[in-house]
């Protein structure tokens, strides 16, 4: 766990975001403490604290003094909206660029999308 | 007890013609776990022994908790240095624990008891008759149970087998999160320990060539691990380490690697 080359705090933050989007972590549910992160994944507690600070800044988590850190209400919707906002620029655009590079026309891409839509309807 | 910070200013330590530590200016953040990395004979042990007041600087200054630690018992009572070789006399393990309890104001008998069983250490044996792995484990125990405001592990886990090392890392993190103090861990085996660090200092041929947060290093390393960076920085050709030059601390003498 958390052994990629990215900074560990970023991997922890991404994991929490994914858990919130997928509903593994529910709103107002408590997340593991920095101490639990440190001892479970053998990392410096300050590293986990940095991930928490980032997510608190983004309004994904909130702190209850003396109790711990929790998923903010509306966090899932906010993360989903963020991903939707970036879907076309971050996800679809590179696919279309690649299609042009390898000689697939936008019409063929469109046909594929039409077929996918038909399959979904049936 | 408040964790001790360390300030080194233009510190040099020489033995005859050999310069072991050469003009090091650095600070060690109080309450954080700092990794001191360097190849063999890069000056790590000399630097740590000087911080722990086992040695006198040839030039420059060491401040621990704002004071010169050399021959200052109020400061040295709060510094525990554990060395790989172990500084053991012909003393039984349980007598060594009793001695440590007497000289360490922050000593935890409960933690010592817990670690004795975690490391499966015999208490009645002479410390000098323990196996190398057991001696390392005893060092780790003495360092952890002292809960000193400045605790230094100098390559202490080298003699331990892998399962014992992981016991050490886990016990260190567990106790550190409950009792925050300044911890310095020196190593030339980086991969296993780099995740424990909040700060990293890299020493090469007696000079400090890098000082940064561990996560800052991972970010700047463009997806290199600290292990990779370390190899890049300290290999003879000094490889493509130039990209890090701008982030080295403001000490003289880094020009040789661009």
Q: Roughly how many Å apart are the termini of chain A? A: 40 Å
Order of helices and strands of chain B: EEEHEHEHHHEHEEEHH
* CA radius of gyration of chain B: 18 Å
Please give the alpha-carbon distance between the first and last residues of chain B: 42 Å
According to DSSP, the number of beta strands of chain A is 2
Q: What CATH architecture of the largest domain in chain A would you give?
A: Orthogonal Bundle
Low-confidence stretches of chain B: 237-258
Q: How many individual helices of chain A? A: 5
Work out the helix count of chain B: 8
**Gyration radius over CA of chain A:** 19 Å
Percent of residues in β-strands of chain B? 15-25%
Approximately how much helix is present in the residues of chain B? Answer: 25-40%
Give the overall average pLDDT of chain B. 86
The biggest beta sheet of chain A reads: 2 strands, antiparallel
Structural class by sheet pairing and helices of chain B: alpha/beta
CATH topology of the largest domain in chain A: Arc Repressor Mutant, subunit A
Quick synopsis:
Chain A has 122 residues and is mainly α.
Overall description:
Chain A has 122 residues and is mainly alpha-helical. Chain A has 5 helices and 2 strands; from the N terminus they run H-H-H-E-E-H-H. Chain A folds into 2 domains: 8-72, Arc Repressor Mutant, subunit A; 76-121. A two-stranded antiparallel sheet of chain A has the order 1-2. In chain A, helix 1 (8-22) crosses helix 4. Helix content of chain B is 31%, strand content 24%. Chain B is an alpha/beta fold and 258 residues long. In chain B, the strands form 2 sheets. A 6-stranded mixed beta sheet of chain B has the order 5-6-7-3-8-9, sandwiched between helices. Chain B has a 3-stranded antiparallel beta sheet with strand order 2-1-4, covered by helices on one side. Chain B is built from 8 helices and 9 strands. The longest helix of chain B has 17 residues, at 162-178. In chain B, helix 5 (132-146) packs parallel to helix 6. Chains A and B meet through helix 2 and helix 3 of A and helix 6 and helix 7 of B.
């Amino acid at each position: 766990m958390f052994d990629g080359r990215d900074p560990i705090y970023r991997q922890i933050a991404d994991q929490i975001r994914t858990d919130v989007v997928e509903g593994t972590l529910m709103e107002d549910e408590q997340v593991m403490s920095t101490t639990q992160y440190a001892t479970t994944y053998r990392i410096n507690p300050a590293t986990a604290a940095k991930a928490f600070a980032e997510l608190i800044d983004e309004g994904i988590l909130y702190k209850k003094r003396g109790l711990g850190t929790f998923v903010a209400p509306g966090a899932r919707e906010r993360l989903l909206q963020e991903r939707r906002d970036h879907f076309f620029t971050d996800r679809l655009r590179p696919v279309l660029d690649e299609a042009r590079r390898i000689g697939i026309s936008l019409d063929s891409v469109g046909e594929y999308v039409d077929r996918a839509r038909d399959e979904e309807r049936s | 007890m408040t964790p001790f910070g360390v300030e080194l200013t233009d510190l040099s330590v020489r033995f005859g013609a050999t310069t072991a530590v050469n003009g090091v200016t650095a600070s060690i953040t109080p309450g954080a776990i700092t990794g001191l990395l360097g190849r063999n004979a890069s000056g790590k042990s000399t630097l740590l022994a000087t911080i722990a007041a086992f040695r006198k600087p040839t030039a420059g200054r060491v401040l621990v908790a704002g004071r010169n630690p050399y021959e200052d018992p109020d400061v040295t009572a709060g510094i525990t240095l554990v060395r790989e070789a172990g500084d053991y006399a012909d003393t039984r393990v349980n007598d060594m624990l009793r001695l440590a309890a007497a000289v360490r104001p922050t000593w935890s008998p409960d933690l010592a008891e817990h670690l004795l069983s975690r490391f499966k250490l015999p208490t009645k044996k002479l410390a000098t008759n323990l196996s190398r792995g057991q001696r390392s484990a005893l060092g780790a125990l003495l360092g952890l149970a002292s809960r000193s405001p400045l605790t230094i592990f100098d390559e202490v886990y080298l003699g331990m087998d892998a399962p014992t090392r992981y016991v050490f890392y886990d016990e260190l993190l567990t106790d550190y999160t409950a009792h925050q103090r300044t911890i310095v861990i020196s190593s030339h085996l980086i991969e296993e320990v780099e995740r424990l660090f909040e700060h990293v200092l890299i020493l090469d041929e007696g000079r400090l060539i890098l000082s940064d947060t561990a996560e800052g290093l991972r970010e700047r390393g463009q997806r290199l691990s600290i292990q990779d960076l370390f190899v890049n920085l300290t290999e003879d050709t000094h490889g493509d380490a130039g990209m890090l030059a701008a982030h080295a601390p403001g000490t003289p003498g880094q020009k040789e690697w661009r």
